[in-house]
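stuck on this one:
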Amino acid sequence: MGRTKFQPMMPVGPVNSRFRACQEASPPIKKKRSRQRGGPKRVTSRTTTASVYKRRRPTKFRRVVVVVAVVERESNPPHAERAKPHPPPLPHPPHARLVAAARGELERAAAMAAAKEAVVPVEGRRNVLVTSALPYVNNVPHLGNIIGCVLSADAFARYCRLRGHNVLYVCGTDEYGTATETKAMEEGCSPREICDKYHAIHKEVYEWFDISFDIFGRTSSPQQTEVCQDIFLKLLDNNWLSENTMQQLYCNSCQRFLADRLVEGYCPTEGCNYDSARGDQCEKCGKLLNSTELVCGSTPCVRDTDHLFLELPLLREKLEKYIDETSVTGSWSQNAIHATNAWLKEGLKPRCITRDLKWGVPVPHEKYKDKVFYVWFDAPIGYISITACYTPEWEKWWKNPENVELYQFMGKDNVPFHTVMFPSTLLGTGENWTLMKTISVTEYLNYESGKFSKTKGIGVFGNDAKSTNIPPEASDTLFTWTDLQAKCNNELLNNLGNFINRVLSFIAKPEGTGYGSVVPDSPDVDSHALTQSLAETVGKLIDQYIDAMDKVKIKQGLKIAMAISSEGNAYLQESQFWKLYKQDPASCATVMKTSVGIVYLLACLLEPFMPTFSKDVLQQLNLSPEEHLSFCDEKGEVEKAKRPWDLIPSGHRIGKPAPLFKGLENEAVKGLREKFAGSQAERKLRTQVAAQLEATSI
């Protein structure tokens, strides 16, 4: 049967007429029936049997997580009713308390904008828009979330600011969809209450990690509804949507369709067979699934339900042109290119953009008024709506591809949604959107022998990390406590911390043994061979650092910055400054003035990775971070940084030196490993048992 497309709604009036048309009966729509994945299917069950057929092997469900609960009308988003001038009200009118909450959110956003002038693109400057993948609001963020999406984006945003670029860094919590509804059922409250609770926790954790968001917003906002529905209606007008019938699991007990994420089972993908694949996506291989594909031992009922689909096959030409051009000019990472090509090679299929849920952006169409948009249709739109919450001039960022460069950071499981789904959605509107230039993708962060998981509570979570007293910047992308100990002790304490402390402590010594905290002059620097050799090496490393960071090779940039610290240590050791102080005072002064310049340079180069460290170093240098943190001149040039003896003026009085890092002993590492073993639930139980034992001990 041929493809059937929606007929666009007829205009009703000159302004926002498409919204008004939603109130009226929709035109007849021809449907195509599809099982979406293959032909006849049979589902077997120990208890019930559904007469559904498929060409593939018989399928069994391993585990179905069904939470029986009544979701009250207040579960609807606070903006389910469209603001004027967009009548009519959409299907689920919100509770008055939720309207007040939404208004409060708007008032807070307005107050924030008033207190701090919003960043908008500036003509003649490099305007960089940075986003981190929006974390689900169903739990506390773990180190995998923070390092994979947030920390790398923050490092890049900070680097761009150091270079003098005009930067807007956007993130927020992804608050709609199954994960939120499920968590609300689990905790016995409304989705709005879950979102409020965990948004506050996320915000607190990121603030503790010193993440420099320009705005950390949320997707359950009126702006999200307005932008998302507007994009949908443009896709509808441009004839990129179709209707299809698909199968979905249905719970007879609570009289509702089961969301995909409520089902777990074995992944059917050959070579994967992951035993905890969710009904919407396998976290191991990243393949998108249908919940009816999972292999298990029991089954709910399977029913047909009509949904809306984005016709990706029809958008393929536009999409491939964008990918072919941008993946080269934007230097996409290989893992991003591989994940994208895998989707294209498999063949683009129409993708469902609606779900049978209550908590989400309502679909502005009469037939689908009881459905909401699928989270992976509306979640990337959250970047736009969060920016709209930040400034009414949001279109200067998001509809300005000639003057704005968009950099997006995420884990590898999110790649296809950002390289295929999101750009296809925007391209389908026919508007001049700012599309992603560069994508930065991180692999999963594994915890000891397993994978970090918010859903299962495995790993070290943001609020847990606060209790370790370990600098979060020391974490690597493969987390083990032993590796953390090695990095803290060898790279931070013995290399970086040792160099800075030696330089500042010697300058701070009283005159006769040091310089009385005053930076000395360096009259013979041009003829000092060792210093000139160091400057040549450091200059090359600075160029390499800039090249790496410009290409979003964050880890490489960090290694290069640490290499400058190693060069500084070698310079001190080879100069034997402690002997020069008496034997050759002029040379000693040159070494110290150059070294204190290297200290300042390290504070700048490492600020994207360890902002708290940089603040502490500048404080010990007696410099203000707001006024002095830059290794570029007014024109953005870095030549001065290649002459470290010129970075701190002679006669400048430094502050009081102090150790910047502390070592991690074996006993401390053992205690941390035991403390964070198992899941969050298991750790909580251990804590409760220990407290009870302590309370009952005699």
The domain at 481-653 is CATH 1.10.730.10 (Isoleucyl-tRNA Synthetase; Domain 1). The mean pLDDT is 77. The chain is about 45% helix and 10% strand.
